[in-house]
Amino acid sequence: MTAESPKNVVVLGATGSIGTSTLDIIARHPDKFKVLAISGHRNVEKLAEIADKFKPRFVVVSDENQYKQLTHLINDDCTILAGATELNTICQLVSADLIVAGIVGSAGMQPVLASVEAGKTLLLANKEALVLAGELVMKAAKDKGATIIPLDSEHNAIYQCLPDSYQCGNTPKNLDKIILTASGGPFWKKAVSTFSQITPEQACAHPNWDMGRKISVDSATLMNKGLEIIEAHWLFNLNEKDIDVHVHPQSIVHSMVCYQDGSVLAQLGEPDMRIPIANGLGMPERITSGANMLDLLQSQDLQFFPPDYQKFPCLALAKEAIKAGGTSMAVLNAANEISVDAFLNNLIPFTSIAKINAEIMTNATVSQVENVTQLLQLDEEVRAHAREMVKKHV
Ligand SMILES: NC(=O)c1ccc[n+]([C@@H]2O[C@H](COP(=O)([O-])OP(=O)(O)OC[C@H]3O[C@@H](n4cnc5c(N)ncnc54)[C@H](OP(=O)(O)O)[C@@H]3O)[C@@H](O)[C@H]2O)c1
After folding, report:
1. Which of 36, 110, 120, 365 has its CA 20 to 30 A from that of 265?
2. For the residues 124-150, what does the mean pLDDT come to?
């Protein structure tokens, strides 16, 4: 009997938080995984360090301006590629077995689409790709026989509570509803009257999870949960009314599936992204992740609260976007990327994130989603509009 050869993994966004957790697991299992290709955008020092440690055959730096510097930093014998379109190239390599989508924002959409169009197994963390182009991604995955395994902890929890035969894109059988849990972020108990004073550093200091800056701000506004409702809508083919949110400050129960017979299945674990990532990488086996084992005897009480849609209007915006359908989710995503970026750069107060997103949603015309070109054009238009709005909110 011959030992199975390691799976070739492409890590998109290798320099980020998801990328780092993924590489940590891969390093624990050299017999199971080999890094075939990695990507980074601007952090070329880290990209070169990763290349040196994992010896991938391909390294992509999506910001072309960083190419020259990267070539000076990499000594290994690998192919260095520059530019966003090369992300698609590494996703479609014949020898690629698993693609980990860890790019932040809508920049992750095209490589996600390229992966499913090539019929690959996609381990999806980049929620914005689904928010922007969920309809196209899920259709291409079905047409090309691609497998999508969600890495976002809540969606991975739901996935783990569904039958082994379940494939994303189908409505789960015998379901009553799903419940996404939300930590509530750093401000769910804070008085709303103080929200305008919140700084980017406070917003990025998440009580339970250590994440990139954009998703940390999204968690603080609860837009992250809104984006996750949209993500769940596409992944599990559910209506927004079948997706509930419970605020669960301990982040131990990662989400739940309620079946028609009254059974509620939940997935529990320490708040450590290596758990869902190891689940996706190891599937159908269970592999070690390096995360601590949950000890319920040592845990605090597990609490659950209803979300406050008035205090966190971004959550309601996401539900409205699903109801409106078509391009409205893409509009919300683009508006939010610009407003969050403006907040992180100290251009607008925290409270203006929701205001800009809401104003753009109110004025948007909803069309049917037709193709990528249409979505990219819309994305650019909404971003330009949002940048103008940022100037008014300064
Ligand atoms: N972190 C978490 O715990 C977590 C949990 C669930 C879901 N997610 C989702 O996973 C995704 C990644 O989040 P993260 O926290 O890992 O973000 P992050 O730490 O900010 O990392 C983002 C990665 O994307 C790359 N990148 C940034 N802009 C890019 C562009 N325009 N084109 C191509 N690549 C670009 C970055 O490259 P450089 O650093 O080299 O510039 C980096 O590798 C997000 O969609 C997030 O919502 C994250």
Report:
1. 120
2. 97
Q: Which CATH number fits domain 7-151: 3.40.47.10, 3.40.50.720, 3.40.50.150, 3.30.590.10?
A: 3.40.50.720
Structure tokens that stand for 184 in this block = 């509530």
Query: Which residue type is seen at 4?
Result: E
CA–centroid distance, residue 129 to ligand 1 (Å): 12
Q: What would the pLDDT profile of 42-54 be if each residue is shown by its tens digit?
A: 999 999 999 999 9
| Residue 153 Cα: closest atom of ligand 1 | 6
Q: Is 204 in the pocket of ligand 1 (CB under 6 A)?
A: no
| Distance spanning both ends of the chain, measured CA to CA | 67
| Six-digit token string for 187 | 């401000």
Q: How far is CA 355 from CA 134, 221, 328, 361, 389, in A?
A: 25, 11, 16, 10, 10
3-state SS class at 255: strand
Encode pLDDT of 228-283 as tens digits.
999 999 999 999 999 999 999 999 999 999 999 999 999 999 999 999 999 999 99
Joined together, the tokens standing for residue 220 give 């603080």
Q: Is 121 helix (H, G, I), strand (E, B) or coil?
A: strand
126: Cβ below 6 Å to ligand 1?
yes
Q: Residue 51: CA atoms inside 13 Å, Cβ hemisphere, count? A: 27
Angle CA(3)–CA(125)–CA(315) in degrees, nearest 5? 155
